[in-house]
Amino acid sequence: METTLYGVLQFIFSIAFGWLLSKRSSEASFREEQRRFATSAYRRIKEIEASCTRLKDDLYRGVKNAKSSGASRDLEISLVRAEEVLETTESSKLDWADIIGDEISKIEEVEKLRKERLKLTGRKSDSFKNNDVESDQQKLASLEEKLESIKSSLPDQLKLLLEQEDSEETPVSEAISELEKYGFIELDGFGDTDMPLDRDPGDLKPQEKLKIKLMDLGDRTATLIASDLEGRTVGSFTNKYSGNYSEFTMAVCSAMESSTFDGVVMDVDEELINGMRRYFIVHAYPNEKAKDA
User: Fold this and answer.
1) 172, 232 Cβ separation under 8 angstroms
2) For the chain, which residues make up each domain, given as ranges?
């Protein structure tokens, strides 16, 4: 009787133990499947976010450069829609934080390190002047090491996402590529009637030499400003690359290896746009090379 009871209990315990093992295995499998799905969804959200950010930047430039009030209004509406999509992607990323919070934190750390790398790259010209080249190179090497360490700890899908982002052209690479290809960077200059300019850009003449430098003008801070050879300000420039305006100015200065460089006026619009803005085209050259233009 005792032997039979022991056998029955052993059988029951075996079933219970097997059920617990099976349950734990199923839960682990379910969690792993959740993580894979969340990782895939997060990657898609990041791709949508990147595309929408580029669209927003293009629309913003379009609004600034629109040559009619009707076109400007249409672009502004589209810009609002793009910003709404970006807000949605931000909340969508938070939806997966409970499942892949560690991975999301690592992606955010990568983005932070990339910004630091961009700042160091943009300081290139000042480094030459202050003999900080070696120091900046060491900082860049350290940043690259941290980036690679974080990337190697991520799932394959997120590694692929970061590699894809790294392969895309940055404003700095766009500017350097244009300068290497043509020997100059073509800039779209403008002057608004409400800007505190010393000279009307409508008075500029083709082939007139200009000085371009990073400075503050009115409520515009850290902006590329063009001045004539007498030091009179004549206008600023629109963003022509991917990324925001500060990345554009940093890219141009990095390509020129200076925050002050030369320019030559190529063309000037005869008429004001919307009664307040005049455009002009400038070819920007590294210092001293404009003499040969």
Assistant:
1) no
2) 1-95, 99-168, 174-292
Render 221-270 in DSSP notation, one character per residue. Answer: EEEEEEEETTS-EEEEE---SSS-HHHHHHHHHHHHTSSEEEEEEEEE-S
> What are the structure tokens assigned to 167, written together?
């392969």
CA distance 188 to 58: 15
SS3 196: coil
Q: Would you say the pTM of this structure is higher than 0.90?
A: no
H or E segment at 71? helix 69-95
Domain 174-292 is found in CATH 3.30.450: no
Instruction: Let me know: does 93 contact 45? Beta carbons within 8 Å.
Output: yes
10-residue averages of pLDDT along the chain (293 residues) = 53 58 62 81 84 78 67 79 85 83 89 78 50 70 89 88 77 87 93 93 96 90 93 94 83 90 94 84 83 53
